[in-house]
Structure formats: structure tokens, C-alpha cells
Write a sequence for this structure.
């Protein structure tokens, strides 16, 4: 059966499809340097780089408007921190140069993620699982067939971890073909369960600083048995 195991989906190896269905239940701050000289032309040049790179970053980020994992890819809190640091006031050349480097790095990273997503939309494996993942994130979610090595083992005897995610990467890990259980329906439920976890992470990253995400608000009200795993099960169903 499917059951929560951290962020993993667990499937009982001996159960048929009916049982599968039934069981679903940082950028540097620069500091406060009061001895820093007034902003020089060099500082202004670095800040101009921050502005131009930030404008390009926003343009690239707009390509993810409406994508359910947008916040995981664009990392809005990190970008907002950079903008706040750049507009904080007096800084020295080293601090300004660091901000320019960070802005350049953020833009480059986002461009690389977009390029990777563009090459991921063709469902190279032709599989149901990859088709679901590609469709869900428009290529911005990766899928890897390595749940048997990338995911933690189940603590329950006779159960196998069928899928998992990690908050540090926009990736769904599922079992390789020869080890998947429950046929197409089982695969669909595993993938949708793990996608739901990515949406939960994205929801948390999109929340304003100091505020709860929408998913957490629902759990705090007691919905989904106050469990992210149950929430993911309900989404999969």
C-alpha cells in the first residue's frame, strides 16, 4: 500500500493494484560597515551590473508564470534579498562587486535551468511517468529512475519505497521499470504523490518572509490529518 515515509511513497511488494489504491491514505549581506567610503563610480558600475542582471533575471523568470514549481526554480526570497542589499545604501567596492557577482550567478543559474527544461519536454523515455512529470512542470521538473538508491528504505517489513522527492532539487525519484508495482495506475499514483510534495515545497518558498504557506495553513487547521503525506495522498487520488 501507499504510505508516508518522510517524503517517500511506499508500496507493499506483495499487494495487487486494488491494494495499492486502497492503501492511499545566499547572497552575502555586506554588513553594516560604517567606515565604508561613499559610493564611488566603481561602486556605481557594480550596481549597474546588478540592475541589468536583475532585469534579465525578471525577464527569464516571467517564463515560469503560472508554473506550479515556479518558486523552486526562481527562488524569490533569494532574489528579493539581493535587491534589498543593492538598495540598502552606502557600501564599499568589495561589497558592490560581490552583489554584482551574485546577480550574475543567479541569472546564469536560471538561464541554465530554462535550457535544461527545454530539453526535457519531449518525454525521451516515452513513459507514462515521464509524461506526467513533463506535463506537470513544463520540463522544469526532472525525473530519475533511482528510487531504489536515492530514497530511504521503508521501515515497514515487506514494503518498498516507490518514490521520493527532496526539497533541495526539483526532481521526482521513482523505481526503475523492472521494479515498479501496480501497473500504470500504481505509477500514476506514485508520481502524482511525489509531485504534490514538490508543490508543497514551492508553496513554502513562495510565501512572504515570516508568513505561513497556504498548505501549512490548511494543515494547521487540522485538514489532511495535519499531514503533508496525507495531503499528497489526497492529491494523487
Amino acid at each position: 500500500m501507499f504510505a508516508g515515509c518522510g517524503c517517500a511513497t511506499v508500496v507493499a511488494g506483495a499487494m495487487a493494484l486494488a491494494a495499492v489504491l486502497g492503501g492511499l491514505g545566499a547572497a552575502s549581506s555586506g554588513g553594516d560597515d560604517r567606515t565604508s567610503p561613499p559610493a564611488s563610480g566603481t561602486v556605481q558600475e557594480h550596481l549597474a551590473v546588478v540592475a541589468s542582471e536583475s532585469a534579465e533575471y525578471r525577464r527569464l523568470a516571467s517564463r515560469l508564470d503560472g508554473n506550479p514549481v515556479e518558486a523552486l526554480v526562481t527562488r524569490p526570497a533569494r532574489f528579493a534579498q539581493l535587491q534589498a542589499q543593492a538598495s540598502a545604501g552606502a557600501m564599499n567596492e568589495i561589497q558592490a562587486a560581490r552583489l554584482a557577482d551574485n546577480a550574475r550567478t543567479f541569472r546564469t543559474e536560471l538561464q541554465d535551468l530554462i535550457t535544461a527544461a527545454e530539453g526535457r519536454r519531449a518525454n525521451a523515455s516515452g513513459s507514462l511517468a515521464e509524461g506526467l512529470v513533463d506535463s506537470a512542470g513544463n520540463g522544469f521538473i526532472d525525473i530519475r529512475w533511482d528510487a531504489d538508491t536515492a530514497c530511504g528504505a521503508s521501515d515497514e517489513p515487506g514494503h518498498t519505497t516507490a518514490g521520493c522527492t527532496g526539497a533541495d532539487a526539483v526532481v521526482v525519484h521513482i523505481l526503475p521499470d523492472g521494479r515498479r508495482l501496480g501497473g500504470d495506475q500504481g505509477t500514476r499514483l506514485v508520481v502524482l504523490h511525489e509531485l504534490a510534495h514538490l508543490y508543497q515545497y514551492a508553496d513554502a518558498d513562495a510565501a512572504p518572509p515570516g508568513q505561513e504557506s497556504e498548505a501549512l495553513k490548511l494543515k494547521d487547521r487540522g485538514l489532511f490529518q495535519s499531514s503533508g503525506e496525507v495531503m499528497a495522498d489526497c492529491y494523487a487520488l
Remarks:
- Residues 98 and 219 are 40 Å apart (CA to CA).
- The beta strands are 4-5, 8-12, 142-144, 159-166, 169-174.
